[in-house]
Amino acid sequence: MQDNPIDLSQSRVCVIMNLGSGRKDDREFADQVSRALKPFCASFALYQTRRGDDLSRMTKRAVAEGFDIIIAAGGDGTQSAVAGVLAGTDAVMGVLPGGTFNYFARDLGVGETLDDALETLQNARIVSIDIGEIGDLVFLNNVSLGVYPHILKTRESIYRRWGRSRLAAYWSVLVALRRLRHPMTLIARVDGESRNFTTALVFVARSAFQLDSFGLDGADAIRQGKFAVLIARARKPLPLIRSALRLAVGFSAQDDDFDLIVTDELTIETGKRQLVAHDGEKTPMDSPFRLRVRRAALRVLLPADGRNKTDGAAS
């Protein structure tokens, strides 16, 4: 669904900026955003925080204050937190990439750099896109169960000690897999049918760009409004290292590492509480896990001329 091009001069605009995202110069980033947008908006506000927990609260505040456009400035976790509040509302979401991977921005094609994304916002149209949901939690790129959430947890502690680097990311995978003791036994229910799996990793993808970058099947299904559900065939640490490393750090994966389920709705039962990774964040959740695609639930700003700033595309 597409509306008319947006007119910033008639819009109240609020930027929600996560100072903890990526490795950007926060002051220069904020100054550049303000210079590019403030003179052209009916009104402009910039909210900043270093706490991920503040993002939803700030977004709710911006909605309550009547801002027409609410822009998420940060990585995929920031985008997901803001989208979780805006989904189903009349407010329009803008995207400014400021994280490490920025899969959502790249998937939408709004621009991988701040300059390109600001250019998109200055000359944009409104498009309603599909999003993913697990329980009441919105996700934009992916959800995973099993070893991957523990890789993220391990990576955070390693980053705190040694700093962010690709080598630290690799090491976090090896450390997390070394601690793997038992795979999950689960039931996946799709269209009234049940399938049993014993696996160490379930990866539910909503980002076509991410799957393309991993070299995995399923991107076309995502563009058609589906989930690509990847279930690792490996059950033990050593054979799992290959596929987990690829998913964790963005290497090309192999289709024969996974079983693929394509659907827009499913339920996963593990029989117990699990740590769930979603767009780079982690939340403990109770089984069963009900996932669905919410159609046209989020209004976002894309280039007005219909051309993407990257190879990504809107859902």
Topology, pairings included?
Elements: E1 2-5, E2 12-18, H1 26-37, E3 43-49, H2 54-64, E4 69-74, H3 76-86, E5 92-97, H4 103-108, H5 114-122, E6 124-134, E7 137-139, E8 142-146, H6 147-162, H7 166-178, E9 184-190, E10 193-199, E11 201-205, H8 208-214, H9 219-223, E12 227-232, H10 237-249, E13 258-263, E14 265-269, E15 274-278, E16 281-285, E17 289-303
Parallel strand pairs: 2-3, 2-4, 4-5
Antiparallel strand pairs: 1-6, 6-7, 6-17, 8-11, 8-15, 9-10, 9-14, 11-12, 12-13, 14-17, 15-16
Keywords: ATP-binding, Kinase, Nucleotide-binding, Transferase
Pfam families: DAGK_cat, YegS_C
Protein name: Diacylglycerol kinase
Structure characterization notes:
This protein has 315 residues and is an alpha+beta fold. It has two domains: 2-131 and 296-303, Probable inorganic polyphosphate/atp-NAD kinase, domain 1 (Rossmann fold), CATH 3.40.50.10330; 142-278, Sandwich (Tumour Suppressor Smad4). The protein is 33% helix and 35% strand. The chain is built from ten helices and 17 strands. Strand 15 and strand 16 (281-285) form a beta hairpin. Helix 1 packs parallel to helix 5 (114-122), helix 6 (147-162) crosses helix 7 and helix 7 (166-178) runs antiparallel to helix 10. The model is unreliable at 309-315 (pLDDT under 50).
